[in-house]
Specification:
- By secondary structure, the chain is mostly helical.
- The protein has a domain at 33-57.
- Helices cover 67% and strands 0% of the residues.
- The radius of gyration is 14 Å and the shape is globular.
- Keywords: Membrane, Transmembrane, Transmembrane helix.
- The chain crosses the membrane at residues 35-57.
Length: 58
């Protein structure tokens, strides 16, 4: 959990999509749900990366 008023670190920003999905599902993103958070982050950043590559190549 992040304390209000605290600055978000780079790692928090990178892991933000998976953390929010885990919170929405009601599981602890730092506990056993680390693999769920990793999967969500991988899918998000894979999609973003593929879109960027597609735009640059085409």
């Amino acid at each position: 959990m992040q304390i209000k008023g605290a600055k978000m670190t780079l790692a928090d920003m990178i892991l933000w999509p998976g953390t929010k999905v885990c919170e929405r599902l009601g599981v602890d993103p730092t506990g056993d749900a680390v693999l769920i958070r990793w999967l969500i982050n991988t899918l998000v950043y894979l999609t973003v990366s593929l879109i960027i590559v597609w735009i640059v190549v085409v």
